[in-house]
Write a structure and sequence with these properties.
Blueprint: H1 10-25, H2 30-34, H3 44-63, H4 74-77, H5 102-124, H6 132-157, E1 184-187, E2 190-194, E3 210-214, E4 217-220, H7 226-234, H8 246-255, E5 263-266, E6 269-274, E7 277-280, H9 292-301, H10 309-316, E8 349-355, E9 381-384, E10 401-403, E11 412-413
Parallel strand pairs: 8-11
Antiparallel strand pairs: 1-4, 2-3, 5-6, 6-7, 8-9, 9-10
Length: about 425
């Protein structure tokens, strides 16, 4: 968790999180950082610049008298979707922006960092009127983009015929074991309180806390494995329309899906592209890079269903936030450990059956920051948990991730319910 209430630690926290972004970019060439593989993904260079733009736009310009932007043209170029502060540059063209280059973006980050650290040090002495919550939001925003930078980069590198590794995993990342048998963990029936309780940081879409009624049931003790998903494939899962929602089946036919994203079948075996290069599909690892449509079809084939986001949250509320995160340097999910309810965090995001809508009583704040989450509450499904490229401090039981149902480039997996 970020040290949002320890003002004297904010400079240290700010530096640590900003350094992690640079660590992600460190092994990449200028070409790696500039290319864009699809409209939904952004170049790593853009992620580095956009997170810097956030601090410049929402903290430095309002709170530093006489602040001079590094380059006024960046206010449009690195705006993502905040229409209240100007018309953003076309998202699909981000990969065409060769200027500024990587070196200039590095200078941009250094310029803003120096200004931010000066402001935070003054705030620690109570000599600068700054809303610390904006800095905390900016740091959580940067953590979001750290994960996005890696998932977008994976999609980009997967298109190269060289298929080289981004980084080799930590030595312990290759330690594999058999996944434990899947068991079922009861979820209580009745009225439950869900949503963020107001203590510590949360995005606006995590609250307000409210009551829901759960029918009761159970959640699978671990994530679905590659081997279990292979059984679905071999049983004709991608050829059986009765398993699929109508939109899902149409997408399967249009996109010619036959396996999860990044899977390749050759020489009678399955391999998949990972951030450490091509490797065989390990049957006991969690299946990832599946869409909501695929998760829902698999659940139907397995005689189960996907959990509601509230059943997931109630089951997860007493489980420690621990698992395989970005800081461990694995960049890939691991086989499940033994335990009653494992892999809730740090391996793969888990699709739920819940549409992404606002909670009862949600009040959308005015201004540009009111556009952060609420404007996307249509045609998206909720995912819960965290992935192997999520920063550790960015996971919590109430976090609501969301993507369109056909999305597959995130580290999205499957937890069954019944």
């Amino acid at each position: 968790m970020l040290l949002e209430h320890a003002v004297d630690k904010m400079v240290e926290t700010y530096r640590r999180i900003r350094r992690l972004t640079e660590w992600i970019a460190e092994p990449l060439s200028a070409e790696d950082q500039t290319a864009q593989s699809m409209v939904e993904a952004s170049p790593v260079k853009w992620h580095r610049a956009h997170t810097t733009w956030f601090f410049e736009t929402f903290v430095l310009l309002p709170y530093v008298k006489g602040y001079r932007p590094f380059d006024p043209r960046y206010s449009k170029l690195f705006n993502s979707y905040y229409n209240a502060v100007g018309v953003p540059f076309t998202r699909a063209w981000r990969g065409l922006v060769t200027r500024p280059g990587v070196a200039e973006v590095t200078r941009y980050r250094a310029y803003v960092d120096q200004q931010m650290e000066t402001l935070l040090e003054a705030r620690a002495d109570a000599s600068a009127p700054i809303d610390v919550s904006l800095v905390v939001l900016g740091l959580h925003h940067e953590q979001q983009h750290q994960e996005l930078a890696l998932t977008d980069l994976k999609h980009l590198l997967s298109h190269s015929p060289v298929a080289s590794a981004y980084r080799l995993p930590s030595p312990t990342a290759e330690e594999m074991s058999d996944a434990p048998a899947l068991t079922w963990i009861s979820v209580p029936e009745g009225v439950q309180e869900v949503g963020h309780d107001g203590h510590g940081f949360a995005y606006d879409n995590e609250g307000p806390r409210h009551r829901v009624y759960l029918q009761g049931g159970s959640l699978a003790s671990r994530l679905v494995t590659n081997g279990e998903y292979l059984d679905f494939i071999r049983d004709g899962g991608y050829r059986t329309p009765s398993l699929w929602l109508s939109d899902g089946w149409a997408t399967v036919q249009e996109q010619r899906w036959r396996a999860p994203l990044y899977w390749v079948h050759d020489e009678d075996r399955w391999r998949h592209f990972t951030l450490s290069g091509m490797r065989p599909v390990h049957p006991h690892e969690p299946v990832t890079h599946v869409s909501f449509y695929e998760a829902e079809a698999f659940a139907r084939w397995a005689g189960a269903r996907l959990p509601s986001e509230f059943a997931w949250e109630v089951a997860a509320r007493d489980v420690p936030v621990a698992g395989r995160f970005l800081e461990g340097g694995y960049f890939h999910p691991a086989t499940a450990p033994t335990g009653s309810l494992v892999q809730l965090y740090g391996d793969a995001w888990q699709w739920t059956a819940s549409p992404y809508i606002g909670y009862p009583g949600l009040v959308v704040t005015g201004g540009a920051l009111g556009e952060y989450n609420a404007k996307f509450m249509a045609n998206q499904m909720v995912l819960r948990g965290a992935s192997c490229v999520t920063p550790m401090g960015h996971a919590r039981p109430t976090y609501r991730n969301f993507f369109p149902p056909a999305s597959r480039w995130q580290f999205s997996g499957i937890r069954l319910a019944r």
